[in-house]
Amino acid sequence: MSASERKRAAITEAAIGEFVERGYAGASVDAIAARARVSKPTVYSHFGNKERLFLTVIGGYLRDGYTDLGPLADRIAEAPDPRAALIDFLGSWVEVVLREDVMTLRRLVIGEIDRFPQLGQVWAQVNATNDEALVRAFAALHKKGALDVPRPRQAVRQLTAMTVDAAQLIRTFRPAYEFDEGELEELVSSGVDVFLTAYARG
User: Fold this and answer.
1) pTM (predicted TM-score)
2) What is the pLDDT of residues 115-135, one digit of tens each?
3) PANTHER family annotated for this entry (predicted)?
């Protein structure tokens, strides 16, 4: 890694910390530069201004957090047990969205969405990556006759609403809520079972 890349990585890490702790309005470029141990002009040379820094680092952090889910999604259509594969994928997705850092960023994005509608687009694009993986899987399962899913995109919305979105919504507005042992597993598996029942071949 070059010196320039190291400085950019340090700025990114410092900016995430400042924005999470203080919000957009409360975070300053001076504090970010001090935390990253670089000069203020160095921050500007890498990111231009505070707004661009905010959008770049938050968007990148969210995208990076979902990276490991891709291989799980790609295995769903060919899995010998689609139910188990769906539970595995959705369970891992729930784990990601409930991570404290991701939940903190979600609340931050919600609070800043009027000022930065682009952040909503970034969040939607991150989720769309997983959505599209499920769309492909359901289309493949429909084609081979394993499920009856003529509208896979609608089916994805229904399934994620019962699983990922349900868990995420609870923790978004109740940060201290602790899921009981087995509660998340039950939420995901029951959602998958409802989905598979609804889309079973007649």
Assistant:
1) 0.82
2) 888 878 877 887 787 788 899
3) HTH-TYPE TRANSCRIPTIONAL REGULATOR RUTR (PTHR30055), TRANSCRIPTIONAL REGULATOR TETR FAMILY (PTHR30055:SF224)
